[in-house]
Design brief:
7-stranded parallel sheet, Rossmann fold, 37% helix, alpha/beta, 7 strands, 194 residues
């Protein structure tokens, strides 16, 4: 059975699709990976012809008895849909990417509450994404996230052009700093799945 990793947050613009793509791309050299794009914007479906190393689909049947895959990443829309509780329940790990901003901190509460309502708080990892360099706000936001009592990844993903461009060039391999960050986060994700 594949490990199912749900990438969700009710707020748009936090980098869910880009993070989903980069985690899948980083794992696909050593594992069979697919992305299920449930975001109505279909950002990842639109680039599926560019992804040569793994499947990108909007067909939910991929979740049913897909024994040949090792990992399925699910990219969700930027709102709390009626489908989300079902997806939370089938997920082995829930990743909640967030920017380090005050509005992002406030917006994450609804997503975390829904995850906890489904008793999946222990299977959740908040990832600080698109982080600006040299700002004390990031540490303030981390302190604020403590009140939710959900794991926060040690790895922070910087606001690098390499991540923005990654979906066009199949990953961040060409940028050493970006690759180190996605490698580190990939290790944390794999550890959380154990």
């Amino acid at each position: 059975m594949p490990k199912i990793i749900l990438i969700t947050h009710q707020k748009g613009g936090v980098g869910k699709s880009t993070l989903t793509f980069n985690l899948a791309q980083n794992l696909c050299a050593n594992a069979k990976v697919a992305i299920l794009d449930l975001d109505l914007q279909g950002s990842l479906i639109q680039i599926k012809k560019l992804a040569n190393d793994f499947e990108i689909t909007s067909d939910e049947s991929i979740l049913i008895k897909n024994e040949e895959l090792d990992f399925i990443f699910i990219d969700t829309p930027p709102y709390l849909s009626n489908e989300l509780p079902k997806l939370i329940n089938v997920a082995d790990l829930i990743i909640v990417p967030t920017k380090a901003g005050v509005l992002d901190l406030l917006a994450i509460e609804g997503t975390i509450n829904l995850i906890k309502k489904e008793n999946k708080g222990d299977h959740t990892l908040i990832v600080l994404n698109m982080i600006k360099p040299n700002t004390t706000l990031t540490s303030d936001i981390i302190d604020g996230l403590d009140s939710y009592m959900v794991n926060v990844a040690n790895t922070q993903i910087s606001d690098l052009v390499a991540f923005t461009r990654s979906v066009l060039v199949n990953g961040v391999e060409a940028n050493n700093n970006a690759q180190k960050q996605i490698d580190s986060l990939t290790k944390e994700v794999l550890t959380a799945l154990l």
